[in-house]
Design goal:
The chain has 185 residues and is of the alpha+beta class. It has three helices and eight strands.
Length: 185
């Protein structure tokens, strides 16, 4: 049960903070106010998404074969998000999910993503972009929140997409592709 407590806290904070975000957005042209407006618009205008994390791939060149064998790469999990295609046709999303990390510990994650989309959202489409997130891991600071920005990409058809993020690193850490699917409902 103690493993799930950080997940519940992150999800609750994410959902509570976005519902009242409109109250702190000013109508100025500052980066903070524009970001606040994007988050608010995504939450209020977006549709519901089911997130299903399912696989992590550790680059074989960054780890010994013994270390690779010790990792869990099927990292099933579950999450919820809200997303929309903005006036430019690009994707914006807010999400909260939890999954099993490489050491079989629960890893919660909340964030905002943006992707530039090629193709039509209601047909075959692909995107590249970034995600600004907060996660927490048992093996790094015993669930101390870790902020980050990661590159993301997707291929989708209508409301279903296959997504990936790349976690950069060095020899023996990072260098991971994280895969999840989303289903709009």
């Amino acid at each position: 049960m103690t493993r799930l407590r950080p997940t519940a806290i992150c999800i609750a904070l994410a959902l509570c903070s976005t519902s009242s975000a409109w109250a702190v957005c000013d109508n100025t042209d500052s980066l903070l106010d524009r970001t606040c407006q994007h988050v608010t618009d995504t939450w209020e205008q977006g549709g519901n998404d089911l997130y299903i994390p399912f696989h992590t791939y550790h680059l074989r060149s960054a780890y010994t074969s013994e270390k690779i064998d010790s990792f869990r790469e099927d990292n099933w999990g579950l999450g919820y998000g809200r997303s929309r295609y903005n006036a430019s046709g690009n994707w914006e999303g807010l999400y909260a999910m939890a999954f099993l990390d490489s050491h079989s510990n629960v890893e919660p994650m909340v964030g905002y993503g943006y992707q530039w989309i090629a193709g039509q959202p209601q047909a075959l489409h692909a995107g590249v972009g970034y995600s600004v997130l907060v996660t927490a891991r048992e093996d790094i600071g015993h669930y101390t929140p870790i902020p980050g920005v990661l590159p993301i990409a997707s291929v989708g058809y209508r409301d279903v997409s296959l997504n990936t993020a790349f976690v950069p690193g060095g020899k023996g850490h990072g260098n991971v592709f994280f895969f999840w699917s989303t289903f709009g409902f």
